[in-house]
Amino acid sequence: MALLEIKNLHASVAGREILRGIDLVMEAGEVHAIMGPNGSGKSTLAQVLAGRDTYEVTEGEILYDGKNLLELDPEERAREGVFMAFQYPVEIPGISNSYFLRAALNAVRKHRGLEELDAMDFLALAREKLKLLDMDPTFLNRAVNVGFSGGEKKRNEILQMAVLEPRLAILDETDSGLDIDALKIVANGVNAMRAPERAILVVTHYQRLLNYIVPDRVHVLAGGRIVRSGDARLAEELELSGYASLEAEVAA
Amino acid sequence: MPNPTSQSTPIEELVSQEYKWGFVTDVEADVVPKGLNEDIIRMISAKKHEPEFMLEWRLKAYRHWLTMEEPRWANVSYPPIDYQDISYYAAPKTLKSRPKSLDEVDPEILRTYEKLGIPLREQEILAGVAVDAVFDSVSVATTMKEKLAELGIIFCSFSEAVQEHPELVEKYLGTVVPYTDNFFAALNSAVFSDGSFCYVPKGVRCPVELSTYFRINAKDTGQFERTLIIADDGAYVSYLEGCTAPMRDSNQLHAAVVELIAHDNATIKYSTVQNWYPGDKEGKGGIYNFVTKRGKCLGVNSKISWTQVETGSAITWKYPSCLLIGDGSVGEFYSVAITNHYQQADTGTKMIHIGKNTRSTIVSKGISAGYGQNTYRGMVKIMKSAEGARNYSQCDSMLIGDKCGAHTVPYLEVRNSTAQIEHEASTSKIGEDQIFYCRQRGLSSEDAVSMIVHGFCKEVFRELPMEFAVEAQKLLGISLEGSVG
After folding, report:
1. With contacts defined as CB-CB under 8 Å, which chain A residues touch B441?
2. Measured by CB atoms within 10 angstroms of the end CB, which terminus of chain A is less buried, N or C?
3. Number of other residues whose CB lies within 10 A of the CB of residue B472
């Protein structure tokens, strides 16, 4: 059974249809990339998977691990192992990263029938993950995303992913606004997360992230539909030809 | 999307939780007839076997009160109060003679405290908190008094202080809040029934947090406590005040007065968690909390710090203030005020800088939900004599939903050009983005709101003593675990 199966997904925002029939199957252990020009519906797809209710699903279904994902609240999806790295991570003043992350981890653990971690055990776990991502331990003491640079925010998302160990990770344009060093750190973190039981969906506008995270499959989204699918070479091809030719193809 | 909960629903659910502490204890109360006149005041004074100076002071206050008008400048509205329709004194009948120990206390009253989660015995033994519990108007039990007495600390009910230490009461009563101060302070001075008294002698550091729990119980009985705390040269005391009240249909007036006096190098820390009945969802019932709290930093390098968490009452009118008289004295005000449904709060502080190099800090966090109206009203006054005075003020407001209001009214009066004053203010709204972010990480909407509100209030919560941090957590539905301090 596939970990994620999207069938004929239609979604709209404020009455305007953005997704017009998406079909996608992801097996555990795979990394897929969703590429496409601005306005093609990439982020909408990510948000719909995470359960953002500004988008209305008008048709189709999403099966996650055999369950109807659309019936679950966002927090239920998260506890079932769906994680989204945000394109624009949100600030929570006054709440430390470690407190936030421990609360999140314990919500997930509780759901899975595991014992909640106390502050000491959590700290040990978090330190280990920080090392994995080559991040400064002071990260944990800072308020969630407050005063973080763009790169720090994105790395914080990857840290959260590493701690929460999701089964399905969705990276919503995690590479946007990153310089090449930050990009490498993020990519290394994602690569370290590759595992047989986990699927990772990388949503990106640019091919360059895929130089560091080599996907098993690449899908090109345009006009709310997947117009091309292929292996990693498709991304390179797009880098040369650009989206313009593709959009002409769609329009034709 | 098959997600039936819109983003605002969980917030509304959280903020519309029913008042959990509404119950009425079945104790026969000894209530004087309704109404206010000189005879009533003489009756109250006689019931309490007060010395002549107290009666005289009460009568002077009453006569002055007759000449005053109820203040109308606050940003609150309520129907006129009929002061003749209030009974000004109530005492549980079983307490005509004070119990010698907790064993003698009416079990019904003890159960009431247990429902509130403050078992006296446990507090006495485990928490190291000396409790002077005010049930209606008369102190029920005073604990750990002997221990404190060894250090020369006097901690007792106000009535007892009047009997045992009349010289201290006469010396300090009304020196910070004179009976002429304002309408409600004058009323309190005339009719106050009881309260707490504390005197910490020279050089003594009070080893425990002193604590008082107030309850309003008898129907239609106004509560008029009076608290007086004196820290002599080099003394330190931390005082906790916490309140919950049973559910009521008719409004109840509460007009307390608190006076603090800090001598040379003395420190008084006064913390409040106020959770009186706020009225129901339609705004019916609830307590009117019209309180005058003021501290006098009389001595050099003295310090008075107010911390308050105001979650209850239908109307809050309260401005814990500091008179910074001694050179180098310090005043602090940390406040969290929450208004929900139809609650109204007009609260803030006054920092009056008189001495040289005096400093003050104001941190105010107002949270409005439902139809709640929250006003911060604060005054910083630098007198001509206050060379080198400094003030830092920060007033933040948070809105939950779109039917509530937040208002900030800062007054600044500077008469010395060497003063340094900073004022910061912000207004924010709990955003859908913030809540969605938390939910995507596995937290429920309720936990998300709690966390965001807690983060907003953190600078104030960390000023609370540990014992109170727990109550603040209960009141806000916030898990403080691991994030306090």
Report:
1. 78, 100, 104, 107, 160, 164
2. C
3. 24
